[in-house]
Amino acid sequence: MQGEERKRAILNKVQESKSVEVEDLAIEFNVSTMTIRRDLAELDKKGLLVRTHGGALKTENEINVFSNFDLRIGDNKEKKIEICKIAARFIQDNDILFLDCGSTLFHLSTLMGNFKNLRVITNSLPIVSELLNYPNIKVNLIGGEMDPNRKATYGRISSENIQEYHATKAFVGADGVSITGGISSYDEKESTITKSFIANADKVFLLCDSTKLEKNSFVKFASIQNIDCLITDSKASKEHISLYANNNIKIVYS
Amino acid sequence: MQGEERKRAILNKVQESKSVEVEDLAIEFNVSTMTIRRDLAELDKKGLLVRTHGGALKTENEINVFSNFDLRIGDNKEKKIEICKIAARFIQDNDILFLDCGSTLFHLSTLMGNFKNLRVITNSLPIVSELLNYPNIKVNLIGGEMDPNRKATYGRISSENIQEYHATKAFVGADGVSITGGISSYDEKESTITKSFIANADKVFLLCDSTKLEKNSFVKFASIQNIDCLITDSKASKEHISLYANNNIKIVYS
DNA sequence: TTTAATATGTTTAATATTGTTCAAAATTAA
DNA sequence: TTAATTTTGAACAATATTAAACATATTAAA
Lengths: 254, 254
What we know:
alpha/beta, 7-stranded parallel sheet, homodimer, elongated, 15 strands, DNA-binding
């Protein structure tokens, strides 16, 4: 067996059994442990597995672009789905929608199959890839520099690109929202895009799970007055709900 | 046994058994190892197998989210891979590249893993999704309306978006090219984008398999003088090659 | 036929892969 | 913590493979 063939076999093995050991591989392929070590070092360097003391572990498969995005979707998944089902009630046929990037908004995109003649404008690659499955939805993509982690575009060109459009409704996310601190994000790139969406839509819906209410994150990018409706989940406290209601913020949680 | 026949037999063998070795093949076909090595080098160059130390392995089929795009890649696959390997020779570290959409250019994107500090600007979703796997490549996406069939953006906004950038090299495709008829496409949308790429790059490389030489398609969008290098495959006729060479068009086919 | 072009074989120096040894580093057990 | 054990990676050697240069044979063209 040749070296490359052996490396492929090792890769298969580590994917199947999640972990492998140097000693076992040396016996199985009838080569020295040093050779296996060299193989593992090379595969580790390419990011195809993770080297450990005595062996190696499998990595999350980067072959599918959106796989590690899918994993992130897991956090607070139930709350997010709940929020998205509420948000979907505000969508109407013929709407032109801005969709922010992020795992919550991705969930919303999966609920849009039954509307007629929607147009969605987004900077999120996972959302585009999802919406290409729906014949009832036309999609516009915001251009700009790709962020490989978020699988979305950002930057000056993206913001300017957004200004080419006008939407009837914008659905956006945030990492924190509070009466006094407004809407804030952990990421400056992300906040700039969201800000542009808000500025170019008739109605703005902020999707924000209850754990983020009255929390402030790193970058404030809009005041609470900029949003027309705050959509959260049923775990939101009565205090928070009445706080927003008393400040004339429309808040929906069920 | 003739050379071509032997190569086809080698190809069959490597497809069946996943791997072959130089020594075995030399004995089986009763030729020197040097001949086998030359065969394997040629087949590797065309992307039909992967050369390894001591033999060769079957090519791994690319996995990509955009699955029905993969199907289209089938046509003239060998020619396309051959062309792309030639095109890749013109890429240098630190290049800023425009990459047109289309299956040929998609293949090119899969060959870009070993360069340093590339920036790729494209309107093709499959290419973006492929390049997100490469940490050495920064990607910019051209915004605009999504064409669900081609998985690429097009339209006025896309063309204007391209003008925000300047590339050192543009790699573009076409459905036809001829001395008198220039560069033409079957699709008006596609041609507009390609035209913008051509207008904003220092050097333009046209990737065009030999079946499209001296053919004219529906929409002419550029003259032959707009391109700096025509890259085609080794099946191009001598007449065509000298025709282009005599008209001062740099043509590369091997 | 002769000539040119192409394919194949041989030799050889350079390169790649693998195995062995051993000191350093990491892990485990006491 | 310390000591025993295991694992590691660097250095070197042995072997296998490669590619280049040149020689020879085969095929195609004039």
